[in-house]
Specification:
Blueprint (H helix, E strand, L loop, with lengths): L2 H32 L3 H28 L6 H13 L3 H20 L9 H6 L3 E6 L2 E6 L8 E4 L9 E3 L3 E5 L1 H4 L5 E4 L3 E2 L4 E2 L4 E5 L7 H15 L6 H24 L2 H11 L2 H20 L2 E3 L2 H9 L2 E4 L11 E7 L5 H11 L6 H12 L8 E6 L3 E6 L2 E6 L9 H13 L2 E7 L2 E9 L6 H11 L3 E5 L4 H11 L3 E3 L4 H12 L4 E5 L5 H6 L2 E5 L5 H6 L2 E3 L5 H36 L5 H19 L15 H32 L3 H38 L6 H25 L4 H29 L14
Parallel strand pairs: 11-18, 11-20, 18-19, 20-21, 21-22
Antiparallel strand pairs: 1-2, 1-3, 3-9, 4-7, 4-9, 5-6, 5-8, 10-22, 12-17, 13-14, 14-15, 15-16, 16-17
Helix pairs in contact: 1-2, 1-4, 2-3, 2-4, 3-4, 3-9, 4-10, 4-21, 8-9, 8-20, 9-20, 9-21, 10-20, 10-21, 11-20, 12-13, 13-22, 15-20, 20-21, 22-23, 22-25, 23-24, 24-25
């Protein structure tokens, strides 16, 4: 074992060993006193006091080497003074308090060493270099600009380069956080750290491994960790004024009275046990309370900083969004219905491993669209999937649009840009027939979490994302963020975090490897381990182990309350000690009585510090079994209905385009769904769920808004049903078109908002991780 490792280990064990020795001495002396051996008791107590003197002096010397004058100096003087004047019981009590405080503080250290192994281990050590004689495997350190490198499927790109293959499909989430695969064509740049999500590709190196993007991320994390300022111990901040005051009072009492015992009595009652114990107890209590709800805070220092944070920096993909795209809208060209476009696209993509393909297939299944079996399937990097479906050649993906593209395609592009959506074009026999728009949906607990954070004291929220500006703006508007910056590289994120730190204590929350440097650069880094990587968790001070974003608000409340109680306990303890010091200086309190009085003060402040174990407003309200079962039932019904809800928009689209014959079957389906499924669901919520929620939410008024929305939904549903009945009797849909469109669009929008509100306000009360929900 090296000397430095031995020293570090000894430093961790010393407080525990000292606590065991001093407690044994205090108990052994008490036993000797009880059986009538006061001389033996004093010897044992003095031994316990001596055992504490040496490490206490060592700690004072260590603090002085760091240019800090901490509270341990008062404890050393009190220990030495107690021995000098024969107050051995007082010395033993002070020794126990010193050892206990050091042990607790060791459990609440500023921060654990950041382990960046997850970043470095992800980087490949070897690469396949192509040369005239064939392929050779070489260490990545030997690659130089101009080398031709082959990257196999699923492999990490070892160096920055330029794509030599016709096209490539890349998973760049480690760099940008964006969950949708990037399509790159020949001649485009590729960055190290990206994963090849398609067929084997060839790149031409443009940099060495050391100068490439991914190595830069590792260096940024290391530099940011090294530059993070340490947190000053809470006790030391109080000691800045308490220590000189104590020495002045003790010295004055000695000078005036001429009695060293009086000075020792002042030091004994001034022994900073409220600082050595109360603050660590409050912090450790906060750490324990956080751990019970699945929030791992690595150190007491991290908890203290989290309690002071007023600025929150957020990543987007996988942090406030689910990180998994969903097919949310289908657009169709003339002569094609949305259902047919989606059916062909999902059938072609049925067996594709692409994340967008999965989203399209899931959208078709949610709408209960029957799929066909594709044949002659070809996966093409950069263009998507081509397959034969029911005798037609169907292509789905991000393929180039023809120069004479139809007008509806421009509308689709505009819609995708406005909504921040990814677009997958659908062609049949080389004719563009439709498009599927996909979004990365907001987490259902995101908005509620951010509201709670603002209530807890966060006054500025900033998003830093590697994603494009349109989707970032959409999320920023939904969450009411104060600022957002898109297309941010890991270096940009670090710079952004450091800029925020210049004006306020800043917390950063993220989930990916690309967030690790920014997490390390923040005053306190927070990782969602449930959705993120090991690297982000290792670089963070706080880990949301369940992957639930709402635990971030709980952690903030716990941190603020723990810090407030720690300050309160220390302040009250110091105030009482100051009063006791005045009496001791006047000769009214001897050393042993002062030690016992100090014990009472300690018990008072420790009892107060333990209140940090019972933080109010943390976690979800307690649910009885019936309420929890009802929430699960209605949450599951929402999931089942989500696909059927899209029939409203599909019917409105066909009606708007003037295709009455196609619109009528969809109107029948929409009406049947609303009358037979949706309205019974809403009535059951009013009768069963909302009354059950009154107790955990504190009032029936908490669900009053949702009941009012039910009434509006019911009114529009009756209107839709009346229109369908008229159409069944032979009335022309053209005559009903204007009001019917208003009805369909109104229902579609109202139900979207209503579902989102219920999921955000009620379904997030469920104890375990929630399914992704569309916002």
């Amino acid at each position: 074992m090296s000397g430095s490792r031995f020293t570090a280990r000894a430093g961790r064990l010393l407080p525990v060993l000292l606590l065991a020795v001093t407690l044994s001495a205090l108990a052994g002396g008490g036993l000797a006193w009880w059986i009538g051996s006061p001389r033996t008791a004093e010897q044992i107590w003095s031994a316990g006091t001596l055992a504490a003197v040496v490490p206490a002096i060592w700690w004072v010397a260590a603090a002085l080497r760091q240019h800090r004058l901490g509270t341990d100096l008062i404890a050393v003087l009190a220990l030495l003074g107690a021995l000098a004047v024969g107050e051995y019981l007082a010395g033993a009590l002070i020794a126990v308090m010193l050892a206990t405080g050091r042990t607790l503080e060791s459990a609440a250290e500023r921060r654990a060493t950041r382990d960046l192994r997850a970043l470095s281990e992800r980087m490949p050590h070897d690469a396949r270099r192509l040369h005239a004689g064939g392929l050779e495997t070489v260490p990545i350190e030997s690659l130089v600009p101009g080398d031709r490198v082959i990257v196999g499927p699923g492999e990490v790109v070892p160096v920055d380069g330029v794509i030599s293959s016709p096209a490539a499909t890349l998973d760049e989430s480690v760099l940008t956080g964006e969950s949708v695969y990037a399509q790159r064509m020949s001649g485009e740049a590729v960055r190290s750290g990206s994963v090849n999500a398609g067929a084997a590709l060839e790149i031409t190196a443009s940099a060495t491994a050391a100068d490439s993007t991914y190595s830069g991320i590792v260096r940024l994390a290391e530099e940011a960790a090294a530059q993070s300022s340490p947190v000053v111990r809470l006790a030391d901040r109080f000691a800045a004024w308490f220590l000189p005051l104590t020495l002045a009072v003790a010295g004055t009492a000695w000078l005036i009275s001429g009695s060293a015992e009086r000075a020792v009595a002042v030091l004994v009652v001034a022994t900073p046990c409220p600082l050595l114990l109360a603050a660590p107890v409050a912090v450790v209590s906060g750490l324990s309370r956080a751990a019970r709800i699945g929030v791992i805070v690595r150190s007491g220092g991290a908890l203290e900083v989290l309690g002071k944070a007023t600025t929150l920096v957020l990543d987007k993909t996988g942090t406030v969004t689910t990180g998994h795209p969903e097919g949310t809208e289908v657009l169709s060209g003339p002569g094609w219905t949305q259902t047919e476009v989606l059916r062909l696209a999902a059938s072609a993509d049925r067996f594709s491993p692409h994340v967008v393909a999965h989203a399209i297939v899931d959208a078709a299944r949610a709408r209960q669209v029957p799929l066909s079996l594709p044949t002659d399937v070809v996966e093409s990097a950069g263009t998507g999937t081509t397959a034969t479906v029911d005798g037609s050649r169907v292509t789905v993906g991000n393929h180039p649009l023809p120069a004479d593209r139809p007008e509806w395609a421009d509308t689709a592009l505009l819609r995708a840009n406005l909504d921040g959506a990814v677009i997958a074009w659908v062609s049949v026999d080389d004719t563009l027939v439709g498009a599927v728009l996909l979004h990365d949906p907001l987490r259902i607990d995101a908005a509620r979490t951010l509201r709670r954070l603002r209530a807890a004291g966060i006054n500025r929220m900033v998003m830093l994302t590697g994603d494009r500006l349109p989707p970032a703006e959409r999320i920023g508007a939904l969450l009411g963020l104060d600022a957002l910056y898109a297309e941010q590289s890991p270096a940009d994120k670090v710079a952004g975090v450091r800029a925020e730190r210049e004006t306020a204590v800043t917390a950063m929350v993220g989930d990916g490897v690309n967030d690790a440097p920014a997490l390390a650069a923040a005053d306190v880094g927070i990782a969602l381990s449930g959705y993120g990587s090991t690297a982000s968790s290792e670089a963070a001070d706080v880990v949301l182990a369940t992957g639930r974003l709402d635990r971030l608000a709980d952690a903030m409340l716990i941190a603020r309350r723990s810090r407030r109680i720690a300050l309160q306990s220390a302040g009250v303890g110091m105030g009482l000690s100051l009063v006791a010091m005045a009496f001791a200086a006047a000769g009214l309190i001897p050393a042993v009585a002062g030690a016992l009085l100090q014990e009472l003060i300690d018990l008072t402040v420790i009892a107060n510090a333990l209140r940090a174990l019972r933080t109010r407003g943390v976690g979800s309200p307690a649910l009885d079994e019936n309420t929890e079962n009802l929430l699960r039932r209605f949450s599951a019904e929402h999931d089942r209905m989500r696909g059927d809800l899209r029939v409203l928009g599909a019917a409105a689209h066909e009606l708007y385009e003037g295709r009455s014959s196609e619109a009528l079957p969809l109107l029948r389906r929409a009406d049947a769904f609303v009358q037979e499924v949706l309205l019974p669901h809403e009535r059951a919520e009013d009768r069963n769920l909302y009354p059950a929620l009154a107790a955990p939410l504190g009032s029936t008024e908490a669900t009053a808004t949702m009941s009012r929305m039910h009434a509006e939904i019911s009114s529009l549903a009756r209107r839709l049903h009346a229109h369908v009945l008229l159409a069944e009797k032979g009335n022309s849909l053209d005559a009903q078109r204007e009001d019917l469109l208003a009805c369909l669009y109104g229902l579609d929008e109202l139900l979207s908002v209503h579902f989102a509100a219920e999921e955000e306000n009620y379904f997030t009360l469920l104890p375990e991780e929630l399914p992704a929900a569309e916002q």
